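Researcher: I'm preparing a figure for a lab meeting and need a structural model of a single chain. I don't have an experimental structure, so a prediction will have to do for now. The sequence is pasted below. Please return the structure as tokens so I can convert it later.
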Amino acid sequence: MKIFACGLALCFASTLALAEVAPSRKLVEQYIEQARLEQQTTAQVDGYAEQLTANGTPKQKATLVQYLSQSMGWNAIKEQYATLLQQTYTAEELKAVLAFLNSPKGRSIVEKNAQFSYELAKVMARNGQASAQGQLGADTRSSSAAELVISDVEEKDNDGRTFFLGKIENKSKRSAKGVQIEVNLFMAGKFVDQYSTYVSGAIEPAGFRYFKVACGCKDSPPARHDSFKINVIDSGY
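Model: Understood. Here is the structure written out token by token.
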């Protein structure tokens, strides 16, 4: 009986060890390719750069993109990413994920992941900007938005990327900080998409700032639309 029990224990231990085998580099690379992790990382860099330089010059944006690419771009982290995958997941777990990614639902999720990473990076960058300005979680006054006037709005398309340019003026007697601008897109009068950005820095009384709201990224353009409406939806004084 003891011999049988020992044999069963050894069999169980062997099965457990087999199930917890670390994935090979080939399996990890297959997962990276199938999950399009490089595209997600690139989209995240683009999202940070787009938000943090929304009101900057093309040169400023290029400088930030270069910095972000060197610190968190795919070429900078791919080896660490692969090693972390091998240290965190088992071969069986990655195989299970790959099986799901090859399913219709899995492929649909992969298609959306780059856009999700792009938008999430913009959200985090906006929160960082607002926090740096002391606005995150602060009370805002609903009347302040009415004193901020948007003008000279143009919709642009550059290399397949849609964005809106405009000007916002502060008609009040107080400095406006943490100003958020929202673009709503419509098709035949029906709301179809939405994008937003924060105006970095403060807008002084009787002063103005230019703004840029980027819509989507290269691989995920905004929904088809025939009209748009821009609002100031948040601000603090």
